[in-house]
Amino acid sequence: MENAVSVTELDRRSGIPGIAQILEGNGGLTKVRITSPASVGEMYLHGAHVTSWQPSGADEVFFVSSKSRWQDGIAIRGGVPICFPWFGDNRDDSKAPAHGFVRIKSWQLDAIALTEHAVTVSMSTGSDEGTKQWWPAEFRLLYRATFGIELSLELELHNASTAPLRFEEALHSYYRVGDVRTARLEGLDGVHYLDKTDAYRENVQQGDVVIAGETDRIYLNTPGAVEMQDLVLRRRIRVDKENSLTTVVWNPWADKARGMADLGDNGWTQFLCIETSDVLGSAVEVAPGQQHRMKAVIRVAGL
Ligand code: BG6
Which helix (H) or strand (E) holds 184? Predict the structure, then answer.
């Protein structure tokens, strides 16, 4: 359900004049718009979904599909969907939503804070009757997006259950590229990965990752940064991370994209997903009363 509090009331409570405004976005969904000297950006309460970030002096960093649907129960195609508490299809329940349930529901806007160089938007969600139909856990999930000359994304799970919780998580970021066929991803040379296009066969990356067909890979044991070079947009995007041990790299390529109604013609050429994550064997286990925080920091530089 979209937040019951009106947009005007949310803006009165949490907006910062000239810096952060809460307003109606696509599909009537509520969004926060940041307009600060360091960057402009947008984030929806639906899925706590960052859909735009443009640091000062740079172009838009994220791809959002012109065919995306914008409604409760459906994920936005582009930006940074949050996958939790499972990644991909639910292995125990084929009817459960792909990539978990938090990207398809409205979160609560907790606060917007202005610091000297950045604006932090804090949102949260948690267990309720709706989530328990899919996952019996008691939990709180906090998300802090800090829009500045860099973008910092922090996802924090609090286990409010009496038993340990095990979950997967991913910041499924769609980075905008001039042409994915000419993009190069550095930082994964020699890393083992599982190839989802080949029944999860294990391979070893040789050199940079280049996209020359459908690509759906889970790079294992990757606590460090990756960097994408885009010769068309003449820029580099660097993703640093904390408390994340897998990196998913995804692009559907032409054939699969044709079957995706929310992607549109040639949309697949315009993004590469690089996902700071903890999936499969790197699923996280958190003891009762404890928390886990995964973080990605994104920076852009010209070539
Ligand atoms: C990727 C998965 O992260 O997300 C792919 O590895 C999946 O297998 C893709 O196809 C898109 O998922 P969705 O549910 O947003 O269409």
Answer: strand 184-186
* Token code pair at residue 46: 């639906």
Cα of 82 vs its chain's centroid, Å: 5
For the chain, the first-to-last Cα distance in angstroms comes to 43
* Of 49, 69, 216, 248, best ligand 1 pocket probe by most atoms within 8 Å of the beta carbon: 216
Region 118-140: mean pLDDT is 97
Query: Is 202 among the catalytic positions?
Result: no
- Catalytic residue at 172? yes
**Cβ–Cβ contacts within 10 Å for residue 4, how many?**
7
Query: What ranges do the domains of the chain cover?
Result: 2-302
What is the Cα–Cα distance from 16 to 66, expressed in whole angstroms?
A: 29
Residues with Cβ within 6 A of ligand 1? 75, 88, 98-99, 172, 196, 216, 248, 250, 275
d(CA 104, CA 83): 10
Q: Do 277 and 170 form a contact (C-beta atoms < 8 A)? A: yes
Confidence of residue 53 (pLDDT cuts 50, 70, 90): very high
Of the residues 42, 150, 168, 275, only one is catalytic, namely 275
Non-local CB neighbours of 7 within 8 Å, separated by 6+ positions: 22, 23, 24, 30
Distance CA(249)–CA(218), nearest Å, equals: 7
* CATH domain 2-302 topology: Beta-galactosidase; Chain A, domain 5 (2.70.98)
**Phi and psi (nearest 5°) for 115?**
-110, -175
In the predicted structure, residue 2 carries a pLDDT above the cut 50: no
Hunting for tokens 């958190």 — which residue is that? 286
Pocket test for ligand 1, best of 91, 99, 214 (most atoms within 8 A of CB): 99
Q: Whose CA is nearest to atom 14 of ligand 1?
A: 98
- pLDDT tens digits, 217-274: 999 999 999 999 999 999 999 999 999 999 999 999 999 999 999 998 899 999 999 9
